[in-house]
Design goal:
Layout (H helix, E strand, L loop, with lengths): L36 H20 L2 H25 L1
């Protein structure tokens, strides 16, 4: 008969992720009073992503998208003039 292990509970897991891909700041080992570069970079990346999401969900994200499409279309339209 097949027997399966139970799903591990958080108390039974003894290892955690550390470094750039850590999920929580408490899991990364640090010296006293010292901030690791990975935590600083992750915090900066999180702030950048949050700002990007807010910008892209506003009207200004749509305006920037239309301007980018117009520039690309103009570039494709006038590119043959530059090749000759």
């Amino acid at each position: 008969m097949n027997q399966f292990r139970g799903t591990p509970t958080p108390q039974s897991i003894t290892h955690g992720q550390t470094g750039v891909f850590a999920t929580r700041e408490a899991e990364a080992s640090q010296g006293p009073g010292r901030i690791t570069p990975a935590l600083t970079l992750r915090a900066a990346w999180t702030r950048f992503r949050r700002a990007e999401r807010q910008f892209s969900s506003s009207i200004w994200g749509d305006v920037l998208g239309v301007i980018s499409l117009a520039i690309m279309f103009g570039g494709l339209l006038y590119a043959p003039l530059l090749w000759e």
